[in-house]
UniProtKB/TrEMBL annotation:
It comes from the Bacteria. This is Glycoside hydrolase family 1 protein. GO terms for cellular component: cytosol. The keyword Lipoprotein does not apply. InterPro entries: GH, Glyco_hydro_1. It comes from Affinibrenneria salicis. Pfam families: Glyco_hydro_1. GO terms for biological process: carbohydrate catabolic process. Belongs to the glycosyl hydrolase 1 family. Keywords: Glycosidase, Hydrolase. GO terms for molecular function: beta-glucosidase activity.
């Protein structure tokens, strides 16, 4: 082992993230303001760990002042959350703003400014209004793209003079992949056509919102937050390498390329055609995507994804699914986070950074989410009741080091944001795996308490230096 110290650049973001539906709770929510997540929870509560879900979450909507003080104590430079589309409007068609909910954002923005922490806002973190899912099939409909743009317009009118760093989506691929491709989540439908239509409409909505923001002349930037899975082939054999390229094409480049380069990869379009995936994109829509690429991307990077060439032939009668081109592969001896079942490999950050340099012209980006969810964290409390999450400190240090190393190598990496600021509700896993710098104690009225990692994060910010033990070759 040897110790290495790296200095954080002055302009480097050291922040944390969350989302509206995972923290706010339903306090003040009006009938008809359910989001997709709320509807799923109401339909299928039994799949949510111990019955917890978005209903109370961390009650951030009532406790944000206390939480912003804790952000300050933990040394955050930036905090990212979302605005809940389902709650920001009382009428999705006319764009009537819910003054009560909007007023809460006015107060949150003011409080963050008072504490000197920059707020980044995302317009959609899965919070599609449930009513638009029922009425129009959600993002399958071009009407919903229009209604989303109207919602964005209302949000910008209200806050764009106070908040200058905007994001259209968080992980736009996730909902339709879980619902329509893999049928793992309510309403459990399998349709690759619908999956691709949702992908396209979210790419279109991104371009429309970027266009709107620029046309109105607002100060600031609009980006989007993607979750590319850094994909490694099992071996250097051409069939395994091909499997990794295919995975990358269907799950990563389907959003990265339109957002940054303004176009779908030609190979993806050819494969969708070959497999008769039915989705609709007009020439005007493709031109709009080409003309309105984002200003920056946030990248959510958690684990390496490994694949191998498929070992079984595809059944002709099974409808097309991208997995006909790959199979998942588990690396023997890998380091694991057993709570989440994700491999731990900090090198993914550096590898993604090099890819951004090589394939995307060193486009500006930052780590928008990275973190470690751990089950039953109470077992790590010391005699004073503070969670001693040394494993999280090690996890953050390892990944942050790779981001800083990449930056020294010329990567355009603007910062690192942890998922999450406090423990919060995950889809289905609810409060099972704890991600926060701050503990939410469910047995004691959701009392907040800084974990050891929150103090460490603060010292990182104060010193501006990361010191880490690096593995040397055994002598
Ligand atoms: O909780 C989620 C978040 O909503 C999106 N990114 C991954 C997190 C942890 O699973």
């Amino acid at each position: 082992m040897s110790k290495v110290t790296v200095t954080l650049p002055d302009d480097f973001i050291l922040g944390a993230a969350a989302s509206a539906w995972q923290t706010e709770g339903w306090s003040g929510k009006k009938p008809g303001q359910d989001s997709y997540l709320d509807a799923w929870y109401q339909h299928d509560r039994h799949v949510w760990h111990k019955g917890y879900g978005p209903a109370v979450a961390t009650d951030f909507i009532n406790r944000f002042a206390e939480d912003v003080a804790l952000m300050k104590a933990a040394g955050l430079t930036h905090y990212r959350t979302s605005i809940n589309w389902a709650r920001f409007l009382t009428d999705y068609e006319s764009g009537a703003v819910d003054e009560e909910y909007a007023g809460y954002y006015d107060r949150l923005i003011a409080e963050m400014a008072r504490q000197g922490i920059e707020l980044m806002l995302c317009l959609e973190h899965y919070e599609l209004p449930a009513r638009l899912l029922e009425q129009y099939g959600g993002w399958a409909s071009k009407k919903v793209v229009e209604l989303f743009t109207l919602y964005a317009e209302r949000v910008f009118e209200r806050y764009a003079h106070k908040v200058t760093r905007w994001f259209v989506f968080n992980e736009p691929i996730v909902v339709q992949t879980r619902v329509y491709l893999d049928a793992l989540r309510w309403p459990y439908q399998q349709s690759t056509d619908t999956w691709m239509q949702w992908n396209h409409h979210k790419n279109l909505a991104t371009a429309k919102v970027v266009k709107l923001f620029r046309e109105k002349g607002y100060r600031g930037t609009v980006g989007t937050i993607l979750n590319p899975e850094v994909t490694y082939p099992r071996s250097t054999a051409p069939h395994d390498v091909r499997a990794a390229q295919m995975y990358d094409l269907f799950y990563n480049r389907v959003f990265l390329d339109p957002a940054i380069r303004g176009e779908y990869p030609a190979e993806l379009l050819a494969l969708l055609k070959k497999h008769q995936v039915r989705w609709q994109a007009t020439d005007d829509e493709l031109a709009l995507i080409a003309a309105h690429t984002v200003d920056e991307v946030g990248l959510n990077l958690y684990y390496p994804h490994r694949v191998k060439a498929p070992s079984h032939a595809w059944h002709a009668e099974t409808p097309f699914h991208p997995s006909c081109y790959y199979q998942h592969f588990d690396l023997p001896g890998r380091r694991m986070n057993p709570s989440r079942g994700w491999e731990i490999q900090p090198q993914i950050i550096y590898d993604m950074a090099m890819r951004m340099m090589r394939d995307y012209g060193n486009f500006p980006w930052f780590v928008a989410e990275n973190g470690m969810g751990v089950e039953d964290e109470a077992r790590f409390k010391n005699a004073d009741g503070q969670i001693q999450d040394d494993y999280r400190i090690e996890f953050i240090a390892g990944h942050l080091y790779q981001a800083l190393r990449a930056r020294l190598a010329g990567a355009n990496c603007k910062g690192y944001m942890l998922w999450a600021f406090t423990d919060n509700v995950s889809p289905m896993n609810a409060f099972k795996n704890r991600y926060g710098l701050i503990e939410i104690d469910l047995d004691n009225q959701r009392r907040r308490r800084m974990k050891k990692s929150a103090h460490w994060y603060r010292s990182l910010r104060d010193s501006g230096q990361l010191t880490i033990d690096i593995d040397d070759e055994p002598k």
